[in-house]
Write a structure and sequence with these properties.
The structure holds two protein chains of two kinds. Chain A is mainly alpha-helical. Chain A has a domain at 275-499. Helices cover 76% and strands 3% of the residues of chain A. In chain A, strands 1-2 form a two-stranded antiparallel ribbon. In chain A, strand 1 (58-65) and strand 2 form a beta hairpin. The longest helix of chain A has 34 residues, at 155-188. Chain A is globular. The mean pLDDT of chain A is 90. Chain B has a two-stranded antiparallel ribbon with strand order 1-2. The mean pLDDT of chain B is 89. Chain B is built from 19 helices and two strands. Classes of the chains: A mainly alpha, B mainly alpha. Chains A and B meet through strand 1, helix 5, helix 6 and helix 7 of A and helix 16, helix 17 and helix 19 of B.
Chain lengths: 499, 489
């Protein structure tokens, strides 16, 4: 039941936040904060619960649409739990970053924020594929509103592109899901969308390959990976800061989660034959987007491209499909969630203060905003993979695992780390170093980080240091899940990839 | 052939609807009262609805060779009457300020409903044509309705004439097709056209020509591409309540006739017929969605989107032949109900802010509606998202059903067109939503207090509850549909 509460609280909280605006425009943010804190508290309860035999910490199953064998099946294991915690944590951060930023129509904003989070929690815990798809789509609409209402100059285009990209590729996944259900029907005589039932199916041959492709395209669009990434820079540059935090920190992780949970385990054979291609795509994605990032002048677009680049390590890790690589992918997801969210908040903070995202107009901010500069250096260094911080652990493990699977693409992908240092330091140099000049913008509001901002940046710093210094506390959660996934697939995949 | 009293009991919903019209006519003749005409019509149709659902369990009667009264037809009799009631409620304030002859609108609405009930109950060409013509004749009147007012909607007469001529031409095609089929089979009942290929001098090409003529007529009425040209003009020119009725009851009843026709004649066994229907489906999905992109009038957008939606339904029609079991029919049934709910809702929102003197059907009229009337805007957003097939709404479950039927029959080409079509469709639905969330304008285009009437608002509330209920928990509706669908197999 606790899982239903987790999601339900957010839905209900969202409605209350919307309604409360009539009383006072400051109530919605308080309600949103309290709602997410309650959720976080429930999640911490989940952490302390002992997993049952199958590794599931909590689960609930009830018939929903019996005609198709669809059930309302939510379950959480260590991997899901890590992502739930990330969602809860970044949810609080997102409310914090919207606290002063969003002044108009606050009720509807926090409604959308909470409903997006509810959809994401659903995605991370649904084990019925129909339910999974349901939540997958549910999180789109509120996110569309966040971009389209509170976004910047080109918001209509960005919001529309985001929605259409994810929805259309989502329908490909829906077709694959239905095809799986029919496969189950032809083998057992009953429709089922239950993950555990579908895992047992023999999904080989050409049909299996096409079905796998449906999932892969849908997930890599969300992740995103080249060639389905072009919605992301637009969405990020137009979204309000809190929207970017959710988008980069959580929404992208649903794609990675989908790859680990569904795309590979459901179609082992197809994934094996596809793995070299996926890894090549990942390596290309890492290098290409790092290069493109370097060419940006819009600071948010730059960070968006670096996001695509970093998520390439996740694809690489997932398709290497061994324990080290998968652990690396999970750690990258968590660490990138924090570092990208923080960088987007810094960029959003700058935009809020000087009303431009153009880096060519900036420079020498170290003198004016020293605290912000230090925070920016910290998170840039984290993003480029400095040992001792979470991103390093993630990318290092992913590369280490991937090296066992495919040496060529791993070596190519590793160059991404060098590019990452180049663009990260270049941003710092552009914005904070050099001579201060304010000819291109109005610097009357250029103030340093206030205490509220310092608190949540500090919280994220602690998170990254914790991940970097003591990653085992996170790996312990995902380790049994990954072991289970690997043993389910048998050894066929790992051996075949190695060959 | 004599009709006994026992035969009349299954006909009760039809008789109730017919009596309603007569009663309303007499009442209008005695004293012109807009309210009274409305109350009689709504009350009578409500009785028809209740009777239809009441008789439903276990019903399976062939009343004269003309009418089949089984669970499926009774179900749609009920849905048709209910839809007519909702249209009546939505349109009551709309016509209230028309200066004369506004009572007859309800007569036409009742009469059209009688035609629709005959259509959903027919498994005979004669009753089908009778029903189609009764519905169409009444619709000509409804489409032209405000033409006698000096403050009338601009194009209603033009729309009516256009609809009259094209619809009559379509009926001509259908009748010719029916005549050819009669020459082949020797019966006017919906019967298999395959068993009789041995008729001397008549080859299967003859049957195919007959069926295609018939389907051309049907495609006209369902506004399937490439026979869709009339749709946007008639939708735009007609007063909103008439458009609403045409888009919901008109399409639904015609589709039921089409479904029975296809199932009973086994037309899909002929490869060329399946091919033609598949191509019409693909063209409708693409043309409907692509042309909707260019529109700035809400009625025209919904007209083009209805073309696309009819195309989606054809996927399930093709699937009825390919698949075992009744998944295809269930998909059609569910999607029709979903389509009626969301079309009624979308047109209903436009109705409540419009009146016969001034219609607000330009997309830009809705600028900033979200901040002026959040409830109405949220409802409209819901209906549009439902039309686009987004979860939490009935449209999503409907689209899922269509996907399900399509995947089972492995109709990959049609599914591809469905995905592309829906992808394009998202754009124009989202555009309307985006216009609603823009900041409100200085000059308000319409007075939001005009939408405070009880009847249409309660109808809208009812529709939005259905939209969300069937979107989140469709199991009860699906189990009913699963039962009744076996009657059409």
């Amino acid at each position: 039941m606790i899982l239903v509460y987790l999601i339900g609280i957010l839905f209900v909280g969202g409605i209350f936040a919307w309604l409360s605006e009539r009383l006072d425009s400051r109530y919605p943010r308080i309600i949103a904060l309290v709602t997410i804190l309650i959720d976080l508290f429930l999640m911490i309860n989940l952490v302390q619960m002992e997993p049952s035999a199958g590794g599931w910490i909590a689960s609930i199953e009830a018939p929903w649409i019996p005609r198709f064998g669809i059930s309302f099946y939510l379950a959480v294991d260590g991997l899901s739990l890590l992502l739930l915690l990330l969602t809860g944590f970044l949810g609080v951060i997102a409310v914090g970053s919207a606290w002063e930023d969003i002044q108009e129509r606050t009720g509807f904003f926090y409604f959308n924020l909470l409903w997006t989070l509810a959809g994401v929690l659903g995605v991370f815990s649904a084990l019925d594929l129909f339910l999974f798809f349901f939540f997958w789509e549910v999180m789109l609409i509120p996110m569309y509103f966040i971009i389209a209402i509170w976004g910047h100059e080109n918001k209509n285009y960005a919001a529309m592109k985001f929605f259409i990209f994810t929805q259309v590729t989502g329908m490909l996944m829906l077709v694959s899901i239905i095809a799986l259900a029919f496969l189950n029907f032809s083998e057992t005589g009953a429709f089922s969308f239950n993950y555990n039932d579908l895992l047992r199916l023999e999904t080989s041959g050409l049909m299996g390959f096409w079905m796998m492709l449906g999932f892969f395209v849908s997930f890599t669009t969300k992740l995103p990976s080249v060639p389905f990434h072009s919605w992301l820079p637009d969405a990020h540059s137009q979204a309000p800061t809190a929207g970017s935090v959710i988008l980069a920190g959580i929404l992208l992780k649903t794609g990675a989660y989908g790859l680990i949970r569904f795309a590979v385990p459901l179609f082992p054979e197809a994934s094996v034959s596809f793995a070299p291609f996926a890894m090549a795509l990942a390596a290309f994605s890492i290098l290409y987007c790092a290069k493109v990032a370097f060419a940006q002048t819009d600071i948010k677009r730059l960070i968006a491209y670096t996001s695509v680049s970093h998520m390439g390590f996740v694809t690489l890790g997932v398709y290497a499909w061994n324990e080290l690589a998968l652990q690396g992918a999970v750690m990258t997801m968590l660490a990138h969630g924090l570092s990208a969210a923080a960088l987007f908040m810094l960029a959003g903070g700058l935009q809020h203060r000087i009303h431009t995202r153009n880096m060519e107009h900036m420079g020498g901010f170290w003198v004016k905003v020293p605290k912000m500069a230090v925070v920016a250096v910290f998170f840039s260094v984290a993003a480029l993979g400095m040992p001792g911080l979470g991103n390093f652990i993630g990318e290092f493990l992913a590369l280490l695992g991937a090296f066992q699977a495919n040496i060529l693409f791993t070596v190519i992908a590793a160059f991404g780390l060098i590019f990452a240092s180049v663009y990260s330091l270049w941003v710092i140099q552009q914005v904070f170093h050099g001579e201060y000049r304010n000819s291109k913008f109005d610097d009357s509001h250029l103030s340093d980080l206030n205490n509220r901002e310092m608190v949540y940046f500090f919280a994220m710093m602690i998170g990254l240091v914790w991940m970097g210094m003591y990653p085992q506390s996170f790996l312990n959660f995902s380790e049994p899940v990954i072991a289970e996934l690997l043993s389910n697939m048998g050894t066929s995949l790992t051996t075949m990839v190695r060959n | 052939m004599t009709i006994t009293l026992d035969d009349l009991i299954p006909l009760f919903p039809l008789l109730a609807a017919t009596l309603t019209v007569v009663l309303a006519m007499v009442a209008v003749g005695i004293k012109r009262s807009y309210l009274l005409a409305a109350v009689i019509t709504v009350g009578g149709l409500l009785i028809a609805t209740v009777c239809a659902f009441g008789l439903l369990p276990g019903a399976n009667f062939q009343v004269t060779p003309l009418l089949i009264i089984d669970e499926y037809s009774l179900f749609f009799t009920g849905i048709t009457s209910l839809t007519a009631i909702l249209v009546a409620l939505l349109s009551y304030p709309y016509f209230a300020d028309l200066d004369d002859h506004k009572e007859e609108y309800f007569l036409l609405l009742g009469l059209a409903t009688v035609g629709a009930i005959v259509m959903v109950s027919s498994n005979h060409y004669v009753s089908a044509i009778l029903g189609i013509e009764t519905l169409s004749m009444s619709l000509y009147g409804m489409v032209a309705y405000p033409s006698n007012s000096d403050k009338s909607v601009k194009f209603s007469l033009e729309a009516s004439v256009k609809y009259l001529i094209l619809s009559a031409a379509a009926s001509g095609f259908m009748l010719f097709g029916i005549a050819l089929i009669y020459a082949q089979t020797g019966t006017l009942a919906f019967e298999s056209v395959l068993a009789v290929e041995e008729t001397p001098g008549l080859t299967s090409g003859f049957t195919i020509a007959a069926l295609i003529l018939l389907f051309v007529g049907v495609a006209f009425k369902l506004s399937l591409a490439p026979f869709h040209m009339w749709t946007p003009d008639v939708y735009e020119g007609a007063p909103l309540p008439a458009t609403t009725y045409l888009a919901t009851v008109g399409k639904m009843a015609m589709f039921i006739v089409f479904l029975r026709l296809v199932m009973d004649t086994q037309a899909l066994q002929l490869e060329s017929i399946t091919f033609v229907i598949s191509m019409i489906a693909v063209v409708s999905m693409l043309v409907g969605n692509l042309l909707a992109l260019l529109q700035s009038n809400l009625k025209r957008i919904l007209a083009y989107s209805s073309i696309a939606h009819m195309g989606y339904l054809l996927i399930a029609v093709v699937a009825t032949y390919m698949s075992s079991g009744s998944v295809g029919i269930e998909a059609i049934t569910f999607y029709l109900i979903a389509y009626v709910i969301m079309s009624l809702g979308a047109f209903g929102v436009a109705s409540v802010i419009s009146s016969s003197t001034n219609e607000f059907d330009g997309v830009e009229d809705y600028t900033g509606l979200f901040w002026r009337n959040p409830i109405l805007a949220a409802l409209f957003t819901g209906m549009l998202l439902s039309l686009a097939g987004i979860p939490l709404t009935v449209g999503f479950v409907g689209k899922f059903y269509i996907f399900f039927a399509g995947v089972e029959s492995e109709l990959w080409l049609l599914i591809g067109a469905l995905i592309i079509g829906s992808g394009i469709g998202l754009y124009y639905y989202l555009r309307v939503i985006y216009i609603m969330i823009l900041p409100r304008e200085q000059r308000e285009r319409f007075d939001i207090s005009a939408s405070q009437d009880f009847a249409p608002n309660s109808a809208l509330l009812f529709l939005s509850i259905l939209m969300i209920l069937f979107g989140i928990y469709p199991a009860p509706l699906i189990s009913i549909i699963e039962d009744i669908s076996t009657f059409v197999l």
